[in-house]
Amino acid sequence: MKINRIVTLLAGLTLSVAASAQTATQKYFGYFAGDTVNTLTSPPSDIGFNEMKDHSNLYAIMAWPGDTSPSGRAVTQSQVLEKLAAAKAAHVHAIVPAYPFVFQAVRGSDGDISCWNNDAGAAASWASLSQAMVDQGYLIPGDPVHSTVVAVYIVDEPNGPTCLNDVNGQASPAFVNGMNAVRQDPRTGALPIASILSGKGFDKFFAGMKMLDWVGFDEYGDDDGKWSRTFAALKQYAPGKKYIVVPGAMQGCDGVDLDPTQRFFTAIENDPDVTWLAPFAWFSGLGGSSSCKGVRDLPATRAAYTAEGLKIRALQCSSSPGDAAFCRGTSGVTPAINLLLQ
User: Fold this and answer.
1) Which residues, at least 6 apart from 128, have a Cβ–Cβ distance to it below 8 Å?
2) Average pLDDT rounded to a whole number, residues 50-71
3) Which of 91, 148, 175, 248 could disulfide-link to 220, CB 3.0 to 4.6 Å?
């Protein structure tokens, strides 16, 4: 009977989809803070994604208004969903920020965030975003191949002066609470949780870093030898993880250098445990400085990262039928079902 044939073929299709989900790409290229506003454009704008999407397969959504009140979080959620719409339309995966939803921000006299404090409502706040991502089709739990959202960025440099360092040899209660909000949510429990640490002060965060799935460090201006030693130390302290490599990719900027690219390209291409090449940064005008140029305004650097990004994106798009369908903007599932029902 035709119905039996449909059931049999649908069962095979389900297994095929499950298999493709398990073979999701392990290699990503995407500029850190890829949605940061470029202050050198007139007017300042966040056009960066449109400029970089052709050679990216991970859109790092990290900009937010800086307000962790309920009304502030509503604005942040709306902005994240808007950026996910752009990522989905461009057939690019995305990593979304947790910190605006799972911690309470405390600002110092200079206006910068001085602490991330525990938030008793973290689980509910995160659930609002996770449910919205599912409802709008950006997150497909258990299917990273077809899902726009493939990872969560818990917080930046938690081993810095952010009040999230280990306490008496145990992970900070505030950090644990924020992690649990993401990990215990059934919609996001299977997503890798990522963070980039400061290259200084690993010893303050031994317990915390072991909770992460993807972990990296930023330490700009190091020569190859020093960078390699720091990377080896990170692997020793947090073994069995997937790792993020973060080249400094700015010139004329405070606190960031233009690092040589080869060690980072070698890492993403040859180390099976390196999952994300995250140059900092695409945008120009860091700190409002007109002399500060990011990748977009450094022609030779832009050419190098564009070529590497295209290689990594092509690797993803050819790694499985599901990945190929995502890159085309089709899941491949609905057309197959329609064919069976004809």
Assistant:
1) 73, 77, 101
2) 95
3) 248
Distance between CA atoms of residues 170 and 159, nearest Å: 13
Eight-class DSSP state of 215: E
User: In sequence order, which residues have a C-beta less than 8 Å from that of residue 34 and are 6 or more positions away?
Assistant: 48, 49, 52, 56, 59, 60, 61, 62, 282
Question: How do residues 203-245 score in pLDDT, each as one tens digit?
Answer: 999 999 999 999 999 999 999 999 999 999 999 999 999 999 9
Asked whether 164 and 174 are in contact (CB, 8 A), the reply is yes
| Of 93, 103, 25, the residue nearest 57 (C-alpha) | 93
Which token pair is 240?
Answer: 């069995």
- Counts of helices then strands in the chain (DSSP H, E): 12, 12
Residue-range domain boundaries for the chain: 27-341
> Token digits for 226?
């020093």
**In angstroms, rounded to a whole number, what is the distance separating the alpha carbons of residues 324 and 342?**
25
Determine the 3-state secondary structure of 132 from DSSP: helix
Which among 28, 30, 95 has a CA at the least distance from the CA of 61?
95
Beta bridge partners of 203: none
Region of residue 200 (phi > 0: left; psi between -120 and 50: alpha; otherwise: beta)? beta
pLDDT at 330 over 70: no
Q: What share of the chain is helix, strand, coil (3-state, %, to 5)?
A: 45, 20, 40
In whole angstroms, what is the distance from residue 32 CA to residue 283 CA? 10
Please give the mean pLDDT across all residues of the chain: 89
Length of the chain: 342
* CATH placement of domain 27-341: 3.20.20
Q: What is the pLDDT of residue 25?
A: 57
Burial label for 92, CB within 10 Å (0-12, 13-18, 19+), is: buried
What pLDDT does 135 receive? 98
Q: What angle (nearest 5°) sits at the alpha carbon of residue 70, between those of residues 66 and 72?
A: 30
What value does the CA radius of gyration of the chain take, rounded to a whole number of Å? 20
